[in-house]
Amino acid sequence: MSNKTYKDLLPLEVLERIKQKEHVTILDVREHDEWETGHISGAKHIPLGQIARALNELEPKQETIVVCRSGNRSGIACDYLSSMGYNVTNMTGGMSQWSGEVEYGK
Known about the structure:
about 110 residues
């Protein structure tokens, strides 16, 4: 059983925070081809397999909302990042339930 040390937010809750102009850091851990099919505007893209090498690109104290297609890979990323002392939140449901605007390409 996992001793989860991070929060979960639904895609609608994340969208509401963005609409309220809250400063949110979003990390998309999907693969490159998935990223190109549409991602949240302003999100940082680091595929799950590259997270350990990219820790210096994330601010440990700043809340980072982690996103994937359905919430599974982002949960894995949250487990790892929270164990390293990062303040992370998993967007459960992932991009498959995202109703906000998306950007395409790089």
